[in-house]
């Protein structure tokens, strides 16, 4: 079970996983800075996988698809602090410092942030906030977010190109995007938004490109990926079903047998 403590004013979140492994998908609408306190976090994107342990810090750019696998490690549950960098604070900062706005980065990748006593002090200072019996004053939470931005820019001089990007997704190549990101299990509305389309236009363009519906195509692609991982990579069904886009193991097994006439477990045991 995932427990989450958060202060709505602060946009600062403490998460703790009480299970040995927990997976969630993320398409954050705001940039986020994450410090892993304990346990292990695997961040899986379409073309790259990152592993973060206790003391690691990373920046997750907004509107980037990622699968998060949170696990216990060394007897400790996964715990992390997430600081969301609000559009309003970032926009105010870069409007006041226009010389810092350089070419906007369209990177889809996570930014691994280096070790720094500045990060250590920053996140240590926030831990007591989660024991408060009252909400953190919004003025203080905004101050902490501004502090996070300052530290980010001090530790990594390249983040301006990411943080100063306030553009919305534009219309992109639908076929290329779907072939790359089909394993992410999210609503069609999110797929359409990330490809720069309305839902109606997305469905129309999808039908034209693939000659089928998005739901049928996504299921087929996910099952084909699952079969490859079971047969060629010798992975177990319980380790892959979420990574290939299914919400639970029973639904995955049912769909797999319906498609291939054999259960994932039976195929994996061959």
UniProtKB/TrEMBL annotation:
One family from Pfam that matches here is: ExsA_N
Q: In terms of domain of life, where is this protein from?
A: Bacteria
Q: Does the keyword Cell division apply?
A: no
Q: Where is the HTH araC/xylS-type domain?
A: 172-270
Q: Does the keyword Transcription apply?
A: yes
The record's listing under PROSITE patterns reads: HTH_ARAC_FAMILY_2
Q: Which InterPro entries does this UniProt record tie to the protein?
A: AraC_XylS_family_regulators, ExsA-like_N, Homeodomain-like_sf, HTH_AraC, RmlC_Cupin_sf
Entry keyword set: DNA-binding, Transcription, Transcription regulation
Name assigned to this protein: AraC-like DNA-binding protein
Q: Which organism is it from?
A: Chryseobacterium lathyri
Q: What is the lineage of its organism?
A: Bacteria, Pseudomonadati, Bacteroidota, Flavobacteriia, Flavobacteriales
